Automatic annotation (TrEMBL):
The keyword rRNA-binding does not apply. GO terms for biological process: microtubule cytoskeleton organization. Pfam families: MAP65_ASE1. Keywords: Microtubule. One of its GO terms (molecular function) is microtubule binding. It comes from Nymphaea colorata (pocket water lily). This is Uncharacterized protein. Belongs to the MAP65/ASE1 family. It comes from the Eukaryota. One of its GO terms (cellular component) is spindle.
Amino acid sequence: PEKTTGTIKEQLAAIAPALEELWKQKQERIEEFADVQSQIQKICGEISGNLHISDQMETPKVDENDLSLKKLDEFHSQLQELQKEK
């Protein structure tokens, strides 16, 4: 294991850019999840004949405990299936 050197402020300054980038990536992933889930809700509304309701739907609540690419791929697959049905 590497020994850390410098003050806590210096150590924090060293990792702050990486933390900022990770936070930005997380926010982008959350937006991508919300977008796909919104599209799924809209298509479900269209299929069920509740189009007027789907237009007024809130942004879906994204489960921030699972922002994995696997989960995102599952949502994309579900969206593609719904688009085929439509």
